[in-house]
């Protein structure tokens, strides 16, 4: 009986999803403001003390859903993903562009030099710290430094994507079969980055999710 009503049930589900999406879109501004307030209280203190946290990676919501066992408890999922964290981080960091690394090193040198110069002038002449928008400039230079450091590969890094992907699979258990023996390719690297994204990207996607989710 259920099979005979599949088309009707599918249409009803489609209408329900459309209705929920429209309701979500109407309430999006209110939800967006709430998201901003929530993340301001949750992450402001962390980012103030550790701005480099934005350059770290975290498992995305999509990745957590994809890799979750049936009826798996949250703490069990967290334990598995935490065991795979270092391998996943090393895997993505093993892909680097020589040109991007050179540019990042030069930008890091310039931004670090300017930051040190401003701080040195501020110690010598306290009026420097009263310059308008100086805090924004310092924050911007710090952010540039964080981003540049993520683009510079570790000098002692060994290229072994297949071994790292095998180690990741040993903990997460689920990965697309077409990734087999293809861990060294850019395509797999980009697809895996959807599972394991930068913290900054994760926060932005969460903040703007009220507008993106309905679509």
Automatic annotation (TrEMBL):
Keywords: Autophagy, Lipid transport, Membrane, Transmembrane, Transmembrane helix, Transport. The chain crosses the membrane at residues 16-41, 99-122, 134-152. The keyword Protein biosynthesis does not apply. GO terms for cellular component: autophagosome; cell junction; phagophore assembly site membrane. The keyword Membrane applies. It is a multi-pass membrane protein. GO terms for biological process: cellular response to oxidative stress; cellular response to starvation; glycophagy; intestinal epithelial structure maintenance; larval midgut cell programmed cell death; lipid transport; mitophagy; negative regulation of TOR signaling. InterPro entries: Autophagy-rel_prot_9 (IPR007241). It is found in: Preautophagosomal structure membrane. Phospholipid scramblase involved in autophagy. Cycles between the preautophagosomal structure/phagophore assembly site (PAS) and the cytoplasmic vesicle pool and supplies membrane for the growing autophagosome. Lipid scramblase activity plays a key role in preautophagosomal structure/phagophore assembly by distributing the phospholipids that arrive through ATG2 from the cytoplasmic to the luminal leaflet of the bilayer, thereby driving autophagosomal membrane expansion. Belongs to the ATG9 family. This is Autophagy-related protein 9. It comes from Drosophila simulans. The gene is Atg9.
């Amino acid at each position: 009986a259920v099979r005979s009503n599949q088309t009707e049930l599918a249409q009803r589900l489609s209408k329900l999803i459309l209705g929920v999406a429209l309701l979500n879109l109407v309430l999006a501004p209110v939800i967006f403001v709430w998201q901003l307030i929530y993340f301001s209280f949750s992450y402001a203190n962390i980012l103030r003390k550790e701005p480099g946290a934005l350059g770290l990676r975290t498992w995305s919501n999509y990745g957590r859903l994809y890799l979750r066992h049936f009826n798996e408890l949250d703490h069990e999922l967290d334990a598995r993903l935490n065991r795979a964290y270092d391998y996943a981080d090393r895997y993505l960091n093993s892909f680097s562009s020589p040109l991007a690394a050179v540019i990042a090193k030069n930008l890091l040198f310039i931004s670090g030099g300017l930051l040190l110069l401003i701080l040195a002038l501020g110690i010598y002449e306290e009026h420097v710290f009263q310059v308008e928008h100086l805090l924004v400039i310092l924050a911007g230079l710090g952010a540039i430094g964080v981003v540049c450091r993520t683009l510079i590969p570790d000098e002692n890094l060994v290229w072994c994507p297949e071994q790292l992907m095998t180690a990741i699979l040993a903990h997460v258990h689920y990965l697309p079969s077409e990734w087999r023996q293809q861990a060294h390719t850019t395509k797999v690297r980009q697809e895996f980055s959807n599972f394991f994204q930068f913290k900054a990207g994760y926060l932005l996607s969460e903040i703007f999710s009220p507008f993106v989710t309905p679509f």
